[in-house]
Design brief:
With about 450 residues, this protein is α/β, with parallel strands linked by helices. The chain has 20 helices and 13 strands. The longest helix is centred in the N-terminal third of the chain and has 21 residues. Bound molecules: pyridoxal-5'-phosphate. Pyridoxal-5'-phosphate (PLP) binds next to helix 8 and helix 13.
Length: about 450
Amino acid sequence: MLILDKTLESWCAGYPLIRALIALQESSWFNPGIAPCAEALADVGLTAADVADASARLARFAPYIMRVFPQTQASGGVIESAIQAMPKLQAALAAENRLELPGSLWLKADNELPISGSIKARGGIYEVLKHAEDLAMAAGLLQAGDNYALLDSDAARALFGQYKVAVGSTGNLGLSIGIMSAQLGFQATVHMSADARQWKKDKLRAHGVTVIEYASDYSVAVAQGRQQAASDANCHFVDDENSTHLFLGYAVAAERLQRQLAAAGIRVDAEHPLFVYLPCGVGGAPGGVAFGLKLIFGDAVHCIFAEPSHSPCMLLGVYTGMHDAVSVQDFGIDNVTAADGLAVGRPSGFVGKAMQRLLDGFYTVSDDALFRYLALAEQLEGIRMEPSALAGVPGMVRVLQETQGYRKRAGLTPAHMARATHLVWGTGGSMLPAAEMEAYLARGRQQLNA
Ligand SMILES: *Cc1c(COP(=O)(O)O)cnc(C)c1O
Protein backbone atom coordinates (compact mmCIF):
# COMPACT_ATOMS: atom_id res chain seq x y z
CA MET A 1 0.00 0.00 0.00
CA LEU A 2 1.39 3.41 -0.97
CA ILE A 3 1.04 6.73 0.85
CA LEU A 4 1.47 9.56 -1.66
CA ASP A 5 3.38 7.23 -3.99
CA LYS A 6 5.79 6.03 -1.29
CA THR A 7 5.85 2.87 0.78
CA LEU A 8 5.54 3.09 4.52
CA GLU A 9 9.12 1.81 4.78
CA SER A 10 10.47 4.64 2.69
CA TRP A 11 8.47 7.20 4.69
CA CYS A 12 9.93 5.83 7.90
CA ALA A 13 13.44 5.79 6.46
CA GLY A 14 13.19 9.48 5.61
CA TYR A 15 11.20 10.45 8.72
CA PRO A 16 12.15 8.07 11.54
CA LEU A 17 9.78 9.63 14.09
CA ILE A 18 6.85 8.24 12.08
CA ARG A 19 7.51 4.81 13.62
CA ALA A 20 7.01 6.16 17.13
CA LEU A 21 3.85 7.97 16.03
CA ILE A 22 2.43 4.80 14.49
CA ALA A 23 3.29 2.93 17.70
CA LEU A 24 1.30 5.63 19.56
CA GLN A 25 4.31 6.47 21.73
CA GLU A 26 4.31 9.86 23.36
CA SER A 27 6.72 11.81 21.14
CA SER A 28 8.27 15.25 20.90
CA TRP A 29 9.68 16.94 17.82
CA PHE A 30 11.46 20.25 17.98
CA ASN A 31 11.37 22.01 14.66
CA PRO A 32 14.77 22.54 13.02
CA GLY A 33 13.06 24.67 10.37
CA ILE A 34 12.15 27.50 12.74
CA ALA A 35 13.22 30.94 11.51
CA PRO A 36 13.40 34.40 13.08
CA CYS A 37 10.09 36.28 13.14
CA ALA A 38 11.62 39.03 11.02
CA GLU A 39 11.77 36.48 8.22
CA ALA A 40 8.99 34.01 8.89
CA LEU A 41 6.05 36.26 9.82
CA ALA A 42 5.76 37.14 6.14
CA ASP A 43 4.81 33.48 5.43
CA VAL A 44 1.43 34.03 7.08
CA GLY A 45 0.02 36.50 4.57
CA LEU A 46 -1.66 38.45 7.39
CA THR A 47 -0.29 41.34 9.39
CA ALA A 48 -0.50 43.19 12.70
CA ALA A 49 -2.93 45.56 10.98
CA ASP A 50 -5.28 42.63 10.32
CA VAL A 51 -5.18 41.63 13.99
CA ALA A 52 -5.76 45.26 15.02
CA ASP A 53 -8.78 45.35 12.70
CA ALA A 54 -10.18 42.20 14.35
CA SER A 55 -9.53 43.66 17.78
CA ALA A 56 -11.34 46.88 16.87
CA ARG A 57 -14.30 44.91 15.53
CA LEU A 58 -14.60 42.99 18.81
CA ALA A 59 -14.50 46.33 20.65
CA ARG A 60 -17.36 47.63 18.46
CA PHE A 61 -19.43 44.56 19.32
CA ALA A 62 -18.72 44.75 23.07
CA PRO A 63 -21.88 46.77 23.88
CA TYR A 64 -24.00 44.18 22.04
CA ILE A 65 -22.24 41.22 23.68
CA MET A 66 -22.63 42.81 27.11
CA ARG A 67 -26.33 43.30 26.48
CA VAL A 68 -27.20 39.80 25.22
CA PHE A 69 -24.75 37.85 27.38
CA PRO A 70 -25.02 39.36 30.87
CA GLN A 71 -22.19 37.11 32.08
CA THR A 72 -19.83 39.45 30.18
CA GLN A 73 -20.99 42.56 32.04
CA ALA A 74 -18.03 42.64 34.41
CA SER A 75 -15.62 42.73 31.47
CA GLY A 76 -17.67 45.27 29.51
CA GLY A 77 -18.62 42.76 26.81
CA VAL A 78 -15.06 41.61 26.24
CA ILE A 79 -14.82 37.81 26.03
CA GLU A 80 -11.63 37.10 27.96
CA SER A 81 -10.13 34.71 30.51
CA ALA A 82 -7.67 35.12 33.37
CA ILE A 83 -4.17 33.75 33.91
CA GLN A 84 -3.12 32.00 37.08
CA ALA A 85 0.04 30.43 38.47
CA MET A 86 0.07 26.67 39.05
CA PRO A 87 2.91 26.16 41.57
CA LYS A 88 1.52 22.95 43.03
CA LEU A 89 1.03 21.33 39.65
CA GLN A 90 4.57 22.39 38.72
CA ALA A 91 5.92 20.75 41.89
CA ALA A 92 3.98 17.56 41.11
CA LEU A 93 5.37 17.46 37.55
CA ALA A 94 8.87 17.95 38.91
CA ALA A 95 8.42 15.13 41.42
CA GLU A 96 6.91 12.66 38.96
CA ASN A 97 9.69 13.28 36.44
CA ARG A 98 12.44 13.45 39.05
CA LEU A 99 13.48 16.74 37.50
CA GLU A 100 14.08 20.20 38.72
CA LEU A 101 11.69 22.42 36.84
CA PRO A 102 13.15 25.94 36.79
CA GLY A 103 10.95 28.83 35.70
CA SER A 104 7.27 29.07 36.52
CA LEU A 105 4.17 27.32 35.29
CA TRP A 106 1.03 29.31 34.50
CA LEU A 107 -2.41 28.65 33.05
CA LYS A 108 -4.35 30.70 30.50
CA ALA A 109 -7.86 29.76 31.59
CA ASP A 110 -9.77 29.72 28.31
CA ASN A 111 -11.77 26.89 29.84
CA GLU A 112 -13.52 29.74 31.68
CA LEU A 113 -14.24 31.90 28.63
CA PRO A 114 -17.82 33.15 28.81
CA ILE A 115 -20.61 32.14 26.40
CA SER A 116 -19.21 28.83 25.15
CA GLY A 117 -16.59 27.77 27.69
CA SER A 118 -13.73 27.12 25.31
CA ILE A 119 -11.09 28.78 23.17
CA LYS A 120 -13.65 28.67 20.32
CA ALA A 121 -15.35 31.62 21.98
CA ARG A 122 -12.51 33.63 20.42
CA GLY A 123 -12.35 32.68 16.74
CA GLY A 124 -15.77 31.15 16.35
CA ILE A 125 -17.70 34.04 17.83
CA TYR A 126 -15.48 36.55 16.03
CA GLU A 127 -16.25 35.07 12.62
CA VAL A 128 -20.01 35.15 13.23
CA LEU A 129 -19.81 38.77 14.38
CA LYS A 130 -17.78 39.75 11.33
CA HIS A 131 -20.37 38.14 9.05
CA ALA A 132 -23.22 39.87 10.91
CA GLU A 133 -21.49 43.23 10.64
CA ASP A 134 -20.95 42.81 6.90
CA LEU A 135 -24.62 41.92 6.34
CA ALA A 136 -26.00 44.64 8.60
CA MET A 137 -23.86 47.31 6.96
CA ALA A 138 -24.76 46.17 3.45
CA ALA A 139 -28.45 46.28 4.42
CA GLY A 140 -28.10 49.79 5.85
CA LEU A 141 -29.11 48.59 9.29
CA LEU A 142 -25.79 49.53 10.80
CA GLN A 143 -23.53 52.53 10.17
CA ALA A 144 -20.02 53.26 11.26
CA GLY A 145 -20.14 54.89 14.70
CA ASP A 146 -23.43 53.23 15.74
CA ASN A 147 -23.78 51.58 19.11
CA TYR A 148 -23.92 47.90 18.15
CA ALA A 149 -26.37 47.18 20.94
CA LEU A 150 -28.97 48.10 18.32
CA LEU A 151 -28.38 44.65 16.81
CA ASP A 152 -30.43 43.29 19.69
CA SER A 153 -33.61 44.23 17.87
CA ASP A 154 -36.43 42.64 15.91
CA ALA A 155 -35.25 44.43 12.76
CA ALA A 156 -31.77 42.92 13.03
CA ARG A 157 -33.11 39.48 13.86
CA ALA A 158 -35.45 39.67 10.86
CA LEU A 159 -32.52 40.53 8.63
CA PHE A 160 -30.23 37.79 9.96
CA GLY A 161 -33.13 35.30 9.91
CA GLN A 162 -32.92 35.33 6.11
CA TYR A 163 -29.40 33.93 6.29
CA LYS A 164 -27.84 30.67 7.37
CA VAL A 165 -24.59 29.88 9.12
CA ALA A 166 -23.13 26.39 8.98
CA VAL A 167 -20.07 24.69 10.45
CA GLY A 168 -18.54 21.23 10.83
CA SER A 169 -17.25 20.51 14.30
CA THR A 170 -16.08 18.00 16.89
CA GLY A 171 -18.13 20.00 19.39
CA ASN A 172 -16.75 23.23 20.77
CA LEU A 173 -16.60 25.20 17.53
CA GLY A 174 -20.17 24.14 16.91
CA LEU A 175 -21.16 25.41 20.35
CA SER A 176 -19.58 28.82 19.77
CA ILE A 177 -20.87 29.30 16.23
CA GLY A 178 -24.27 27.87 17.07
CA ILE A 179 -24.90 29.90 20.23
CA MET A 180 -23.68 33.17 18.71
CA SER A 181 -25.51 32.66 15.40
CA ALA A 182 -28.77 31.73 17.09
CA GLN A 183 -28.51 34.75 19.40
CA LEU A 184 -28.17 37.10 16.43
CA GLY A 185 -31.12 35.45 14.69
CA PHE A 186 -29.35 33.40 12.01
CA GLN A 187 -30.55 29.95 11.01
CA ALA A 188 -27.65 27.87 12.29
CA THR A 189 -26.66 24.33 11.33
CA VAL A 190 -23.85 22.39 13.00
CA HIS A 191 -22.49 19.26 11.33
CA MET A 192 -21.14 17.11 14.16
CA SER A 193 -18.63 14.28 14.01
CA ALA A 194 -19.26 10.98 15.77
CA ASP A 195 -16.92 11.83 18.65
CA ALA A 196 -18.85 14.98 19.66
CA ARG A 197 -20.34 14.68 23.12
CA GLN A 198 -24.09 14.25 23.47
CA TRP A 199 -24.44 17.19 25.88
CA LYS A 200 -22.97 19.55 23.30
CA LYS A 201 -25.56 18.43 20.75
CA ASP A 202 -28.34 18.75 23.34
CA LYS A 203 -27.22 22.23 24.32
CA LEU A 204 -27.17 23.39 20.71
CA ARG A 205 -30.62 22.00 20.02
CA ALA A 206 -31.88 23.79 23.13
CA HIS A 207 -30.62 27.02 21.52
CA GLY A 208 -32.63 26.29 18.38
CA VAL A 209 -29.65 25.16 16.33
CA THR A 210 -30.03 22.34 13.78
CA VAL A 211 -27.56 19.57 14.59
CA ILE A 212 -26.73 17.00 11.92
CA GLU A 213 -24.85 13.96 13.20
CA TYR A 214 -22.36 11.85 11.28
CA ALA A 215 -21.10 8.39 12.09
CA SER A 216 -17.61 9.35 10.91
CA ASP A 217 -14.92 11.78 12.00
CA TYR A 218 -14.41 15.50 11.84
CA SER A 219 -13.12 15.70 8.26
CA VAL A 220 -16.28 14.08 6.92
CA ALA A 221 -18.53 16.36 8.98
CA VAL A 222 -16.68 19.38 7.61
CA ALA A 223 -16.80 18.13 4.02
CA GLN A 224 -20.55 17.46 4.26
CA GLY A 225 -21.20 20.85 5.80
CA ARG A 226 -19.13 22.59 3.17
CA GLN A 227 -20.93 20.81 0.37
CA GLN A 228 -24.42 21.62 1.67
CA ALA A 229 -23.48 25.26 2.21
CA ALA A 230 -21.95 25.59 -1.26
CA SER A 231 -25.32 25.03 -2.91
CA ASP A 232 -26.97 27.86 -0.93
CA ALA A 233 -25.96 31.47 -1.64
CA ASN A 234 -27.48 32.64 1.65
CA CYS A 235 -25.43 30.21 3.71
CA HIS A 236 -22.12 31.22 5.26
CA PHE A 237 -19.91 28.22 5.94
CA VAL A 238 -17.38 28.70 8.72
CA ASP A 239 -14.37 26.91 7.32
CA ASP A 240 -12.34 25.67 10.27
CA GLU A 241 -9.59 24.42 7.97
CA ASN A 242 -9.02 27.60 5.97
CA SER A 243 -10.70 30.61 7.56
CA THR A 244 -8.52 33.67 8.09
CA HIS A 245 -11.37 35.28 10.09
CA LEU A 246 -11.28 32.50 12.66
CA PHE A 247 -7.50 32.75 12.73
CA LEU A 248 -7.58 36.51 13.38
CA GLY A 249 -10.21 36.14 16.09
CA TYR A 250 -7.83 33.81 17.92
CA ALA A 251 -4.86 36.09 17.32
CA VAL A 252 -6.46 38.93 19.32
CA ALA A 253 -5.79 36.87 22.45
CA ALA A 254 -2.14 37.91 22.33
CA GLU A 255 -2.58 41.63 23.04
CA ARG A 256 -4.84 40.76 25.95
CA LEU A 257 -2.30 38.28 27.31
CA GLN A 258 0.42 40.89 26.99
CA ARG A 259 -1.52 43.19 29.34
CA GLN A 260 -2.22 40.37 31.77
CA LEU A 261 1.42 39.30 31.94
CA ALA A 262 2.51 42.88 32.50
CA ALA A 263 -0.08 43.28 35.27
CA ALA A 264 1.25 40.12 36.92
CA GLY A 265 4.80 41.48 36.78
CA ILE A 266 5.94 38.85 34.28
CA ARG A 267 8.55 40.06 31.84
CA VAL A 268 8.89 38.64 28.35
CA ASP A 269 12.01 39.49 26.38
CA ALA A 270 15.15 37.83 25.07
CA GLU A 271 16.35 37.27 28.64
CA HIS A 272 12.94 36.16 29.92
CA PRO A 273 11.51 33.65 27.45
CA LEU A 274 7.84 32.75 27.35
CA PHE A 275 6.89 29.19 26.39
CA VAL A 276 3.29 28.63 25.36
CA TYR A 277 1.79 25.15 25.07
CA LEU A 278 -1.22 25.02 22.79
CA PRO A 279 -3.52 22.01 22.31
CA CYS A 280 -3.94 21.49 18.57
CA GLY A 281 -6.81 19.96 16.63
CA VAL A 282 -7.07 21.21 13.07
CA GLY A 283 -4.69 24.04 14.01
CA GLY A 284 -6.74 27.22 13.65
CA ALA A 285 -6.97 28.12 17.33
CA PRO A 286 -3.36 27.40 18.32
CA GLY A 287 -2.13 28.77 15.00
CA GLY A 288 -3.99 32.04 15.38
CA VAL A 289 -2.94 32.50 19.00
CA ALA A 290 0.69 31.70 18.11
CA PHE A 291 0.60 34.18 15.24
CA GLY A 292 -0.68 36.92 17.54
CA LEU A 293 1.96 36.08 20.13
CA LYS A 294 4.78 36.17 17.57
CA LEU A 295 3.62 39.59 16.34
CA ILE A 296 3.84 40.96 19.88
CA PHE A 297 6.70 39.09 21.55
CA GLY A 298 8.74 38.13 18.49
CA ASP A 299 11.44 35.54 19.06
CA ALA A 300 11.07 35.80 22.86
CA VAL A 301 7.94 33.66 22.70
CA HIS A 302 8.25 29.94 21.96
CA CYS A 303 5.07 28.28 20.75
CA ILE A 304 4.66 24.53 21.01
CA PHE A 305 1.65 22.50 19.85
CA ALA A 306 0.30 19.51 21.78
CA GLU A 307 -1.75 16.69 20.24
CA PRO A 308 -3.18 13.35 21.38
CA SER A 309 -0.97 10.39 20.49
CA HIS A 310 -3.89 9.00 18.45
CA SER A 311 -4.29 12.26 16.43
CA PRO A 312 -0.87 13.79 15.71
CA CYS A 313 -2.03 15.42 12.49
CA MET A 314 -0.18 18.75 12.67
CA LEU A 315 3.05 17.13 13.85
CA LEU A 316 2.87 14.67 10.96
CA GLY A 317 1.98 17.38 8.43
CA VAL A 318 4.75 19.80 9.38
CA TYR A 319 7.35 17.10 10.05
CA THR A 320 6.89 15.53 6.62
CA GLY A 321 6.18 18.85 4.91
CA MET A 322 3.08 17.22 3.43
CA HIS A 323 0.60 19.26 5.53
CA ASP A 324 -2.99 18.48 4.58
CA ALA A 325 -1.91 16.07 1.84
CA VAL A 326 -1.54 13.38 4.52
CA SER A 327 -3.79 12.24 7.35
CA VAL A 328 -2.94 10.19 10.43
CA GLN A 329 -5.24 7.47 9.09
CA ASP A 330 -3.02 7.18 5.98
CA PHE A 331 -0.36 5.90 8.37
CA GLY A 332 -2.70 3.57 10.21
CA ILE A 333 -3.18 5.87 13.23
CA ASP A 334 -6.82 5.69 14.29
CA ASN A 335 -7.69 9.26 15.39
CA VAL A 336 -9.67 7.87 18.32
CA THR A 337 -9.21 9.90 21.50
CA ALA A 338 -11.26 11.15 24.43
CA ALA A 339 -9.83 14.60 23.70
CA ASP A 340 -12.76 15.37 21.40
CA GLY A 341 -11.63 18.90 20.47
CA LEU A 342 -8.36 17.42 19.24
CA ALA A 343 -9.73 14.39 17.37
CA VAL A 344 -8.62 15.61 13.95
CA GLY A 345 -6.83 13.36 11.47
CA ARG A 346 -5.91 15.89 8.81
CA PRO A 347 -4.48 19.32 9.72
CA SER A 348 -5.31 22.70 8.25
CA GLY A 349 -3.03 23.18 5.27
CA PHE A 350 -3.34 26.93 5.65
CA VAL A 351 -2.10 26.91 9.25
CA GLY A 352 0.66 24.35 8.67
CA LYS A 353 2.14 26.25 5.76
CA ALA A 354 1.68 29.68 7.35
CA MET A 355 3.18 28.73 10.70
CA GLN A 356 5.75 26.02 10.02
CA ARG A 357 8.71 28.38 10.45
CA LEU A 358 7.23 30.05 13.55
CA LEU A 359 6.57 27.02 15.76
CA ASP A 360 9.28 25.66 18.03
CA GLY A 361 7.91 22.19 18.39
CA PHE A 362 5.17 19.61 18.58
CA TYR A 363 4.52 16.75 20.96
CA THR A 364 1.96 14.04 21.61
CA VAL A 365 0.25 12.98 24.85
CA SER A 366 -1.57 9.74 25.62
CA ASP A 367 -5.20 9.82 26.72
CA ASP A 368 -4.17 8.20 30.02
CA ALA A 369 -1.82 11.10 30.69
CA LEU A 370 -4.50 13.66 29.80
CA PHE A 371 -6.79 12.10 32.39
CA ARG A 372 -4.02 11.95 34.97
CA TYR A 373 -3.34 15.68 34.50
CA LEU A 374 -7.08 16.35 34.58
CA ALA A 375 -7.30 14.81 38.06
CA LEU A 376 -4.04 16.40 39.23
CA ALA A 377 -5.05 19.90 38.12
CA GLU A 378 -8.34 19.54 39.95
CA GLN A 379 -6.79 18.09 43.10
CA LEU A 380 -3.84 20.49 43.37
CA GLU A 381 -5.08 23.70 41.79
CA GLY A 382 -8.87 23.38 41.79
CA ILE A 383 -8.91 23.71 38.01
CA ARG A 384 -11.58 21.78 36.13
CA MET A 385 -11.05 21.27 32.42
CA GLU A 386 -12.02 18.84 29.67
CA PRO A 387 -9.40 16.29 28.52
CA SER A 388 -8.22 18.26 25.46
CA ALA A 389 -7.39 21.26 27.61
CA LEU A 390 -4.76 19.36 29.60
CA ALA A 391 -2.54 18.62 26.60
CA GLY A 392 -0.30 21.59 27.38
CA VAL A 393 0.54 20.42 30.90
CA PRO A 394 3.58 18.22 30.11
CA GLY A 395 5.04 20.78 27.69
CA MET A 396 7.40 22.26 30.24
CA VAL A 397 8.84 18.83 31.00
CA ARG A 398 9.24 18.06 27.30
CA VAL A 399 11.22 21.25 26.75
CA LEU A 400 13.45 20.76 29.78
CA GLN A 401 14.07 17.09 28.96
CA GLU A 402 14.66 17.38 25.23
CA THR A 403 17.90 16.05 23.78
CA GLN A 404 17.38 17.18 20.18
CA GLY A 405 19.55 20.26 20.51
CA TYR A 406 16.55 22.55 20.53
CA ARG A 407 17.40 24.76 23.50
CA LYS A 408 20.98 25.08 22.32
CA ARG A 409 19.88 26.05 18.82
CA ALA A 410 17.48 28.62 20.27
CA GLY A 411 20.19 30.06 22.52
CA LEU A 412 18.28 29.04 25.66
CA THR A 413 20.84 28.66 28.46
CA PRO A 414 20.08 27.34 31.97
CA ALA A 415 19.99 30.99 33.09
CA HIS A 416 17.27 31.70 30.52
CA MET A 417 15.32 28.65 31.64
CA ALA A 418 15.52 29.80 35.26
CA ARG A 419 13.79 33.05 34.25
CA ALA A 420 11.28 31.44 31.89
CA THR A 421 7.50 31.46 32.09
CA HIS A 422 5.66 28.38 30.85
CA LEU A 423 2.03 29.01 29.94
CA VAL A 424 -0.37 26.11 29.49
CA TRP A 425 -3.28 27.17 27.29
CA GLY A 426 -6.30 25.57 28.99
CA THR A 427 -8.73 25.40 26.10
CA GLY A 428 -12.08 24.23 27.41
CA GLY A 429 -14.28 22.68 30.03
CA SER A 430 -16.34 25.07 32.11
CA MET A 431 -19.59 24.22 30.35
CA LEU A 432 -19.26 20.51 31.03
CA PRO A 433 -22.31 19.08 32.83
CA ALA A 434 -21.37 18.07 36.38
CA ALA A 435 -21.88 14.36 35.68
CA GLU A 436 -19.52 14.47 32.68
CA MET A 437 -16.88 16.21 34.75
CA GLU A 438 -17.25 13.69 37.57
CA ALA A 439 -16.82 10.81 35.13
CA TYR A 440 -13.66 12.42 33.73
CA LEU A 441 -12.32 13.01 37.23
CA ALA A 442 -13.04 9.42 38.23
CA ARG A 443 -11.09 8.13 35.23
CA GLY A 444 -8.25 10.53 36.04
CA ARG A 445 -8.10 9.52 39.70
CA GLN A 446 -7.87 5.90 38.61
CA GLN A 447 -4.81 6.85 36.56
CA LEU A 448 -3.31 8.65 39.54
CA ASN A 449 -3.72 5.61 41.74
CA ALA A 450 -2.56 3.11 39.13
C1 LIG B 1 -10.88 23.25 19.16
C2 LIG B 1 -10.16 22.96 20.38
C3 LIG B 1 -8.77 22.96 20.41
C4 LIG B 1 -7.89 23.13 19.20
O1 LIG B 1 -8.29 24.05 18.25
P1 LIG B 1 -8.08 23.77 16.69
O2 LIG B 1 -8.43 25.04 16.02
O3 LIG B 1 -9.00 22.66 16.30
O4 LIG B 1 -6.67 23.36 16.52
C5 LIG B 1 -8.18 22.69 21.62
N1 LIG B 1 -8.88 22.46 22.73
C6 LIG B 1 -10.23 22.48 22.76
C7 LIG B 1 -10.95 22.22 24.02
C8 LIG B 1 -10.91 22.73 21.57
O5 LIG B 1 -12.23 22.73 21.58
